[in-house]
Queue: 2 jobs
Job 1
Amino acid sequence: MRFMHIRTRFAPSPTGFIHLGNLRSALYPWAFARHNKGDFILRIEDTDLERSSQEAVDVIIEGMAWLGLDLDEGPIYQMQRIDRYREVVKQMLDSGLAYPCYMSEEELNKLRDQQMASKEKPRYNGLWRPEPGKTLPPVPEGVSPVIRFKNPIGGSVIWNDAVKGQIEISNDQLDDLVIARPDGTPTYNFCVVIDDMDMNITHVIRGDDHVNNTPRQINIMRALGGSPPVYAHLPTVLNDAGEKMSKRNGAMSVRDYQRAGYLPDAILNYLARLGWSHGDAEVFTKEQFVNWFDLESLGRSPAQHNPEKLLWLNHQYIQNSDPVKLAAATKPFAHEMGMDTEAGPDFVQVVSLLKDRANTLIEIAEGAKLFYLPAPNLTADQIKENIAEAVMPVLKDLVEAISTAEPTKEAYAAVFKQILAKYQIKMPALAMPVRYALFATTQTPAIDSVLVVLGKEEAVKRLSKVVQ
Ligand code: GLU
């Protein structure tokens, strides 16, 4: 075990909506592989042709790339491995591990009704299962059989789940699983087993909605001479109302978060903590996460999605981001809002000014409007309404002082201090009219920093227009 080369996989079914909780099932096997210098494989379980879509595959692949969950192998599509599954079905028939079953749909339904009526668990009764000395019914003409796996009789399947502890399921509870349909197409649980074996998967880390499949998968694997991997079944992610996450109750896809201005590292950090912990660490780097990740610290109870915590984390990441990188990430949002970030102050400076108060890239871009939208064209009435007559001489003095000051935050701060002292007024009495004159709003970051970013020339131009 100690020298095992770890191989994990994320095996999504590309059906329907891919929410954040789904991608958590990619994050943990990825982190486990990276932590152990193993391999991480993406396998697309697309054999349900009606429900699978390329759109869902794209969302998964893009989402993983955006979060930086790099692959060693894949994407491997199950639909491209159908010949392999058919080959194994044939081998199993030849070696007696599986058998054809001709029971029709109607017969199966009848059997189920009878079992339900006598309060038994509905299960296939083994009618077509060959046994020594048993005579099978005559094969009906023109009927294509399903192929069933000969599940062991008696005994139980036991595995030590890395999250849930030891689980034991009696074989009496498992009937003979259909591994191929009448048209020869292999079934879900069967493909999973063949893939996990062929891909030498050592650790299956997946949602606990698959716990019920596990004993069947283990039985097939053992029958084929394989040894089962370690299983770690992750508790579900619930939404903030404690319900199962779904599009209907407002779950967002990774793309939605990208569009809402979240940083991928913040999402990764957030997802990491949804069901795993390392002491009381809340904010950590991707490298730390990989270094710390182990299966022992996975949570045993359902994790609950907490949008406020995610927003808080995003804020932490924005605040601590390198301004150049943050500016590059914010630019597309600013462009989408119609700003020309080349025409105006240096965008990196603008972003540096705004980042400490922003929760999302959208909020930064919104704030940047101050510097890239055209200068306000204030009417006489607007000026009268927003700037007290008595402040005009003060503003006039200020404009003059600013024109000759060094273009630094410190120098502008000194100018304000000096003017405030001269007129015996408080900062807001001056800063608010200045803000209004510059931008037609009083909501801006600290005025001395704003002047630096806007640029002296532009600031003086805008202020002069008002004081004349
Ligand atoms: N395709 C399954 C799903 O999306 C996962 C199967 C597995 O991990 O074994 O739920």
Job 2
Amino acid sequence: MKHYLQFADLGADEYNYLFSRAAIIKGKFKSYEKYHPLADRTLAMIFEKASTRTRVSFEAGMYQMGGSVVHLTTGDSQLGRAEPIEDSARVISRMTDLVMIRTFGQDKIARFAEFSRVPVINGLTNEFHPCQIMADIFTYIEHRGSITGKTVAWVGDGNNMANTWLQAADLLGFTVHVSTPGGYEVDEKLAFGGKPHRPGCYKVFANPMDACRDADLVTTDVWTSMGYEAENEARRKAFADWCVDAEMMAVAKPDALFMHCLPAHRGEEVMADVIDGPQSVVWDEAENRMHVQKALMEYLLLGRIA
Ligand code: CP
Ligand code: NVA
């Protein structure tokens, strides 16, 4: 049994399989072809933080594959009333076939997985957001072909998205140019869990313009992630120069794409003319969450489809 708790839980060969499978599954969806490989299977979705895309993509995706979902939040379950996570994992995984969790610390999801009888998927933690990066890379491949050897510029917070990009670059053979304000740097130990990584898979730049120079993809995220709201004012000040604007896009490659996992704050981490401009693929990126996650759920439950 496999869990998907961080990007490094799968290998390059498995990602190549999942990207080709996601394209096939997306094709079926677009042509209204019925595809119910997960009939009678149930996905439990546990949300300890808010969500639009993650909920809709997992829920719609599971129904489209013939399965059903159970939606739990901290507020309307015993999870919010201090039932031990181990007990929750034992119980929920006896009644369902797959569990998706959005929570705070990675340690929580790791503990849940340890006591779960069924595969567990990370739907975002403070440390990682692997389903999102899988969708981002699939989107890049759809628009531009292989990401191997390419350069991704990360502008902004050294957060869950940034950590996951680092793992993906290490595994899939591209480079991430990271530029964050001082005090918000990526933590290599956290991103790679203290394990060795490919030297040069990421480079740090003090100036976001330098990170964007000749990039194939420019990407950013909110200045304040869920769970860090108390730091909002300090972050607004610190991140003022880390707003992706037309000038940054102009130093990237002429055919560079722009991505943002959303939700976005126009005028903060990205200017409206960039996110709503011709290089932006954010709507494809959001839609692709569903297609890659359908491929992932199929893979975790049924293995490779010949
Ligand atoms: N990108 C993403 O995970 O969006 P939600 O927070 O809306 O799920
Ligand atoms: N980094 C953001 C991503 C939201 C999808 C957060 O954790 O809130």
